[in-house]
Amino acid sequence: IESRNNKLEMQSLNNKTLIEELDKLLERFRVPPE
């Protein structure tokens, strides 16, 4: 059970990182054209 829990934690961590990377990319696209 513990190892499974660790896997889940790692997965959520990876998801967080992925979401942050996506946010960065979106920010780049959202820059106002001035």
Automatic annotation (TrEMBL):
Per the record, the domain of life is Eukaryota
Q: Which GO terms describe its biological process?
A: exocytosis
The Exocyst complex component Sec3 coiled-coil domain covers 1-33
Query: Which Gene Ontology cellular component terms are annotated?
Result: exocyst
A Pfam family matched in the record: Sec3_CC
Protein name as it appears in the record:
Exocyst complex component Sec3 coiled-coil domain-containing protein
Q: Which organism is it from?
A: Nymphaea colorata (pocket water lily)
